[in-house]
């Protein structure tokens, strides 16, 4: 009888470990998904800037850091911010185009709260910034 109790104890301890591992894996997957969303959305905006280089140089896409799609200057930036805010928790997007015609650079930055913030040491703020020449 004591052997059965010991076996049940060991088995239940193993099941708790398995459940904890599964929970950690799900949190890590949500974090990776958020990072993937950010990279895809930043790349998409940079591609728009490259396509409409003239508009980008004229300042049509400049956007200070904001989580309010209504503050966007153009429809494309508004749509980008709307998608960003709906896909990521507490997301903000910034777009800055600097330089002249031959040496213009575009910087797109996204700040969001990581899904892993509930069990990390920091406040959970994550930032992804990508800069390219236009």
Main sheet, how many strands, which sense, barrel? 4 strands, antiparallel
Name the strands of the widest sheet in spatial order: 1-2-3-4
Overall tally of structural domains? 1
The averaged pLDDT comes out at 86
What's the tally of helices?
3
Beginning-to-end CA distance, first to last residue = 75 Å
Order of helices and strands: HHEHEEE
Protein name: Type IV pilus modification protein PilV
Give structural attributes:
134 residues, alpha+beta, 4-stranded antiparallel beta sheet, 4 strands
Question: Could you please describe the fold and organization of this structure?
Answer:
This is Type IV pilus modification protein PilV. Helices cover 51% and strands 22% of the residues. The chain has helices spanning 2-51, 53-57, 75-87, and strands at 63-66, 92-98, 105-113, 125-133. The protein has a four-stranded antiparallel sheet with strand order 1-2-3-4, with helices on one face. α1 runs antiparallel to α3 (75-87). The N and C termini lie far apart (75 Å).
